[in-house]
Amino acid sequence: MSWNGKTVTVTGAAGFIGSHLTERLLAEGARVRAMTHGRPGHLAGIEHPGLTLHDGCLLDEAYVRQCIEGAQGVFHLGAVTSVAYSYDHPEETVRTNVIGTLNVCAAARDAGIERLVHTSTAGAYGNAEGDRPITEAHPLRGCNPYTAAKIGGDRVAETYHLSYDLPVTTVRLFNVFGPRMGAYLIMPSIISQLLAGPELRLGDLTPTRTFTFVDDIVDGFLRASLAPGGVGELVHFGAERVISMQELVDLIAGLMGVEYQLIQDAARLRPAKSEIFRVRVDSSKARELLGWQPTIGLEEGLRRTIDWMRQAQTG
To answer: CA angle, corner 86, sides to 80 and 87, nearest 5?
Structure first.
């Protein structure tokens, strides 16, 4: 089974992960309807006979239905994705991530699609309980407007599967990185500041994360969309290696050959009750159900990301 020759719709297609996924689907022979919002983003300049761009908003039900009608598959990545933005715009975040997902699920149901892959976030778990890796059974905790809204969207997708037999697979992502990632994230923030000079302004560097390269995530999306046993399932995509933000700074600086001067920036600190301090993923279900595992290590992925940012800066 493959998407070759079939029509698929990708929401959030102009974004970081969405643009990589769109390119991969085109390479696999799919016809891609790329849903964008206001600008073509990372799809600008791409000319491919199988690609059509559709500009609009997930809250526009008619627009969503038009983009999904006649498609065989849907990859739903469109969302407000910035935690920092969600603090200042909680209503927009909730409406987009919940009602937007409702519109996608309703349109997908009426279109009779073969598979909807819904995108979730590891932030839905909040702080991990103890030191054990987070499994799909871990309790959910909405600790900021973004994670609360994503949990709401996840429940909508789950409900459409349970109530209407919509063939949904939910993938929960753990800190994806690589070329095109949002400048507001910590990794590109570190790289861009070090490209400008030795002074590095950051917030709390004690939280731990696990980072997975975008190419591996795209592979996971495709596997999730095609696996017969994936319908109705939630799976984690994340690398096993855990690293603190301080260790990440040291690693990036070492790869760039830069000695840095660290300054803690109070403006970059999140509310203490809203910060997620520990993230450690268990991706064994994805490995067993989908045959997925990451193939690109953190150092190699960082080298590619640093090279991309250097090239983007010199233009």
So the answer is: 175
